[in-house]
Amino acid sequence: MNSEPARGGKPQNEKEGDKPAVRVALLGCGTVGSEVVRLLHEQSADLTARIGAPLEIVGIAVRRLGRARGGLPVDSGLFTTDALGLVKRDDVDVVVEVVGGIEPARSWLVEALRTGKSVVTANKALLAEDGAALHDAAADGNADLYYEASVAGAIPLLRPLRESLHGDRVTKVTGIVNGTTNFILSSMDATGAGFSEALEEATELGYAEADPTADVEGFDAAAKAAILASLAFHTRVTAADVFREGMTGVTAGDMASAKEMGCTIKLLCIAERGPDEAGVDSVSVRVHPAMIPRSHPLAGVGDAFNAVFVEAEAAGQLMFYGRGAGGTPTASAVLGDIVAAARNRLTGFRAPSESNYAHLPVRPIGAAVTRYHINLDVDDKPGVLAAVAGVFAKHEVSIATVRQSGREEDAKLVIVTHGAPDANLAATVESLSQLDIVRSIASVLRVEGGV
Ligand code: NDP
Ligand code: HSE
């Protein structure tokens, strides 16, 4: 990283006696990028005072030069379609990437970092797929890499994990990190609607994208889980390490069943550290819908909000809450990173480098200890309960509660287990499906918190 004050040609807004401007190349000017431009403009005087030098946008890379940009307060001559050319310019200090996707974003950012430029990015997909390429390039170029906006939008979350909690040992991170799916599940909980109906509402209100696959199938949350786990446990975790199950299978019946038990259902990202069966310290990272009691701090997180619950040995329980998406909230996090990077360039400080010294193995989902809520349609005759209990015993799964309801054709058993390796729980469900007395397995959901 350049530890000298900003270099290159003299910026337009430099006055006699002023520090030279810190020059920003913006890659992307869509939902987030346009708000970054607007906030940079509106808060220019405050930002200058906070940094000790002005920020100057020296170029903006976009895909379509002709696209209407709704009166953004920038000179139209700043726009270019040559992002790599912009990154390579000598008069760029900080590269801000709000385009998204793996390539060409990775090539642009690696180029920027290797040549000592500071990088601010909101690109969760890239960080989760190949964060190593960015961190290695940052180390090679002695450059700053900031990415607060990549997880949970406006919520200051990565900086606490990356800095404030570095004196502690984080044991578990449990989060609602996808606003679209939280809106859908909150709506299903409040109105009794099914998944399709709630998705339709989310689309109409502009929460869900035209193609909601990344959200509802858990890909977006899995990328964020990988980033959180890497920071929390000082270990490189990629999206491929994260067990992922989407929430499209959650039915109105599941939600009603959760309600009867004083619970709701959330799409959770869970990253935890602990010994595996052989006693080896390891991590488990997973994304799936789960039933949680209404008393759990995450149960009350409604609408499209995000929240992340962090447990650490010395700090105890911490909760982070706020808007996880949207142009302006996300731009707030991007701006915070730009200010940090700009200050560092003026003072010669550096962002904390990657901490991956722990190299913990990642446990497969089968070895993760989870709990299941199983809803069975069963025959109504003597011995049913004993037969079902026998299956749990065979797979060494302990039953926490059993509830029986209905008669004859409507006979149902609702079973909640104690914690057991997920593989044992899955094998139990498979064996139950083979029993003659089990007419159907109406639903299987994982359970988190003290249900
Ligand atoms: P948008 O699709 O709204 O904007 C993408 C921008 O990138 C557009 O300006 C587009 O140009 C530009 N672009 C696309 N391809 C290229 C290319 N090859 N060369 C140059 N420019 C290109 O995305 P968002 O603003 O929503 O998201 C940006 C990033 O922020 C993503 O990584 C996303 O995951 C992340 N993020 C987004 C959040 C949100 O709420 N939107 C929340 C948190 C993170 P053009 O304008 O010409 O189309
Ligand atoms: N699609 C994401 C969400 C955007 O719904 O939370 C923020 O990453």
Automatic annotation (TrEMBL):
Catalyzes the conversion of L-aspartate-beta-semialdehyde (L-Asa) to L-homoserine (L-Hse), the third step in the biosynthesis of threonine and methionine from aspartate. Its EC number is 1.1.1.3. Its cofactor is a metal cation. SUPFAM superfamilies: ACT-like (SSF55021), Glyceraldehyde-3-phosphate dehydrogenase-like, C-terminal domain (SSF55347), NAD(P)-binding Rossmann-fold domains (SSF51735). Keywords: Amino-acid biosynthesis, Methionine biosynthesis, NADP, Oxidoreductase, Sodium, Threonine biosynthesis. Gene3D superfamilies: 3.30.70.260, Dihydrodipicolinate Reductase, domain 2, NAD(P)-binding Rossmann-like Domain. It comes from Paractinoplanes durhamensis. It catalyses: L-homoserine + NADP(+) = L-aspartate 4-semialdehyde + NADPH + H(+); L-homoserine + NAD(+) = L-aspartate 4-semialdehyde + NADH + H(+). Residues 373-446 form the ACT domain. This is Homoserine dehydrogenase. InterPro entries: ACT-like_dom_sf, ACT_dom, Asp/hSer_DH_NAD-bd, HDH, HDH_cat, HDH_CS, NAD(P)-bd_dom_sf. Pathway: Amino-acid biosynthesis; L-threonine biosynthesis; L-threonine from L-aspartate: step 3/5; Amino-acid biosynthesis; L-methionine biosynthesis via de novo pathway; L-homoserine from L-aspartate: step 3/3. Belongs to the homoserine dehydrogenase family.
